[in-house]
Amino acid sequence: MLLEDLAVGREAEQVYRLLLKRGTAAVDEVCRASSMSREDVEASLAQLRELGFVQAQGEGDFAAVNPAICVERLVEERLAALRRRLRRVDAVRLSISELGRDFSSGAKPSAADIERITDGADVWARLDELSFFAYHEVLAVHPSAPWRAKNIEAARPLDLRCLRRGLRMRLVAARQTLNDPLTRAYLMELASAGAQVRCTDEAVQRMIIAVVVRQPGLVSGLVELFERTWQESVDIVGAESAGNEPTEIERQVLGLLTRVDKDEAAARELGVSLRTFQRHLANVMTRLNTTSRFQAALSAKQRGWI
Asked: What is the pTM of this model?
């Protein structure tokens, strides 16, 4: 039912739709037309009146309020409540620093600037922890060796969680990895999910294997190294998918370009964050070699993608 997500019961919505079609009706008429009991009809009308969907008319008659007014008002109320809740939840992040100080002052020794991790399970656990507390961006470099299936299965939930949270993810892989079907499929999966993935012919080294670096100077140097490697790399979507059929997410993004004017609305309809949608859009525009939404939509139509 359309109004169920607005906390309007199914029976109440049935009564509301009936009143929309009839204009006005008494309780007995609604019972006969809906095959509902009088008790259920009266309960539904009471809920509809409380929500502002129905008004009493004369003696015993009820009329439906224009849905353009009552539904829009209820949607705005629900959205406002949701925004207030999101602000409260987001405010909890402010307590992380304080809680972190308490954690650090406990029995566990404070983390060193450079921490060596030797166990494979501990590596993934630490990557999980670090990615969870990332707020803006995740940078990664993949060496020439192909990924094993168990590594992909361990990395997938971490990577996709970051993308769902709206984090920017940039990954550089050695071009040789594209020769491995399993690794190539996973890199393309990440690109389809909104990650920016590039490949390079230069020799690269994995930045994190079993060492966690916190020393500011060393971290800055690693970031600068990544940025240089990034600038010298090419987009994997363009390298692998030029001329091929678009992915499902690309079709959805292109379809939204023809129907929705604002990125915010398109992101809501696609069910992703604004930043994730804009990354999808940037990838599509790069693949189509266009510089505007209009050009991308036009080029996609010419190719028969939409």
From this structure: 0.42
